[in-house]
Amino acid sequence: MDLLIGIISVIVIVSLFWQRQELKKFRVTQYETASLKVGKEIKIVLISDLHSFTYGKDNEPLLQAVRRAAPDLILIPGDLIVTKKTEKYETALRFLRALSKLQVPVFFSNGNHESKAQRQDADSYAAYQRYRNEMERLGVTVLNNQSRIIQAGGTSVRISGLELPLSCYKKGKKPYLKEDGIKKLLGSASKEHLQILLAHHPAFAGQYAAWGADVTVCGHNHGGLVCIPGLGSVISPQFIPFPKYDAGEFTIGGRKVYISRGLGTHTFHIRVFNRAELVVISIKPGQDAGMEVSK
Asked: Taking a C-beta distance cutoff of 8 angstroms, is the pair 95, 49 a contact?
């Protein structure tokens, strides 16, 4: 019995140490795709679910990875913060200040944590308003059910940010969004421009593609926290087992959806076979190639 207890204790200690080390690491995942709407390669960095997390001093390793990617656009589909941890909003702002020095357009749309923080009856309301004002002062374009048309690498790009109702994030309940829900919030997708959509929740990936997004970027599921090799992600933040859209690249009706495993954690600080990631997407001219090139 003593031997069994000793073995279990060693396993627990080793597991805890491994997790502690694992949460200090992230990887860069690169994808390539193509579009007939693109005249010259566009490189996108996708940053999702940072949750005021830091890698090294002032997130310098993460910033170095962004610099090396040399993006034309930086897209953040929500959850840079944790709603109730208002004292850590400044951590997210320090990261945004450093990003702003790269002189690359940064586009942001709310995740569920920002949507909750901005409610007038929330304890976080005043702190979040200060945070949001500083974010915009830094030059971050906030798109909550709004769109902007820009030029990127000589290509006309329409970037839209979708803020979903908080009812879409209820735990223990399968996410639901009316069939015409996106159109009611954002209007019609652009057929003329390369249409990019920031949408925090990946559960509606099929609807994003059907709406007309050529490229959609998502986060939220944190890759399912725990992954089983060969089976995939175990559970979503809504406690839905084995979510279909957990992480990676998906092709739906010829359109692309990219779902990040996220960079931070909250509440459950674990990652098993599911390393945090910074995503880099290259969109090249021509017919869709749609393949992951490295991990």
From this structure: no
